[in-house]
Write a structure and sequence with these properties.
The complex is a heterodimer. Chain A is mainly alpha-helical. Chain A has 2 domains: about 50 residues, no CATH class; about 110 residues, no CATH class. Chain A has 6 helices and 3 strands. Chain A has a 3-stranded antiparallel beta sheet. Chain A is elongated. Chain B is mainly alpha-helical. Chain B is built from 4 helices and no strands. The longest helix of chain B has about 35 residues.
Chain lengths: ~170, ~130
């Protein structure tokens, strides 16, 4: 039941965002709002089991607040640094690439997805593959620091700073 | 006066965005293999798109503030496009990199290749099968 309500409300909000400026009732026309309610109820009924699997952990608004702070603060700074770094490598052509393994201690699928996407968008790293049983990530690192290698494994903090802590704070 | 300041901010954002998009294209030509090219192709285009769409959002908000309802449509739809770019760009890059390594593309000049243990056997098996067919 909660899954149905949450999915419907989210669908309705997205529908409203996509139909702004259509009329005089606030920003929307009355027809759009009525059609939006009907469509989002149908969509919520069909997709509730796909959208929310088991736990309702992400319904906590504090987690969304931390997520926003993470996107605006450390993530954006990391991304800016990454772009200056890639710009330097594009211009000079100095690269030392390799594929390394990291072992982040995350349990949920959402957490590992968030970390993999963060890694792809930040300094000199690109997530290539995932070991789905152990949640290990394989990372293509454009400038491998050979002193920090142990075999083919690297500690997570050298690859993505404190992102692991932030992701754990958001999803676990 | 306020309008002028906002216009200057919009121009600065556009210049930064175009610069990074240019670097992305330059990197695609300059780097040696798939993975390093993806580095240029994902990070620089995302950062460039953030600034270009950001300038459009600011312009839309300015139009909205000056009393045109079209401004709200412009700002909100562009914000939606920005979220879509932020979600799909790293996912697409991940899919391309994974497919490339599974089909046997080695990273050029690699110091280590941790994935070779995982994918090496299947690639060998596939190659043998291909040769048998021939």
């Amino acid at each position: 039941m909660i899954a149905f309500i949450v999915t419907s409300i989210l669908c309705f909000v997205i529908y409203l965002l996509l139909t702004t400026g259509s009329g005089t009732f606030g920003l929307w026309s009355l027809e759009e709002i009525l059609l939006g309610i009907i469509l989002s109820l149908i969509t919520g009924f069909i997709t509730r089991k796909i959208f929310i699997k088991k736990d309702f952990r992400m319904l906590n608004p504090i987690r969304w607040l931390i997520f926003l702070v993470y996107i605006i603060g450390p993530f954006f700074i990391g991304m800016a640094k990454s772009n200056i770094d890639v710009a330097y490598r594009v211009i000079t052509g100095k690269i030392n690439p390799g594929i390394v393994k990291i072992t982040p201690d995350l349990k949920t699928d959402l957490g590992i997805t968030l970390l993999a996407n963060s890694i792809t968008l930040t300094p000199g790293t690109l997530s290539v593959d995932i070991d789905e049983e152990k949640n290990n990530l394989y990372i293509h690192w454009i400038n491998v620091d050979e002193k920090k290698l142990k075999g083919d494994t690297v500690e997570t903090k050298y690859v993505c700073g404190n992102f692991e802590k932030w992701v754990r704070r958001i999803t676990e | 006066m306020l309008g002028l300041i906002i216009d200057i901010i919009v121009y600065i954002f556009l210049i930064i965005g175009v610069f990074f998009s240019f670097l992305a294209g330059f990197g695609l030509l300059r780097f040696p293999d798939v993975y390093t090219r993806l580095h240029a192709g994902t990070k620089c285009t995302t950062f460039g798109s953030i600034f270009i769409t950001g300038s459009v959002i600011i312009l839309g908000l300015k139009m909205w503030y000056l009393g045109s309802a079209d401004g709200s449509v412009l700002a909100i739809h562009t914000a939606g496009a920005l979220i879509a770019i932020l979600l799909t760009n790293p996912t697409g890059a991940h899919a391309i990199a994974r497919a490339a390594h599974k089909s046997g593309v080695k990273p050029v000049g690699a110091v280590v290749d941790g994935l070779d243990k995982v994918n090496g056997k299947t690639i060998k098996y596939q190659k043998e099968k291909m040769e048998e067919k021939k």
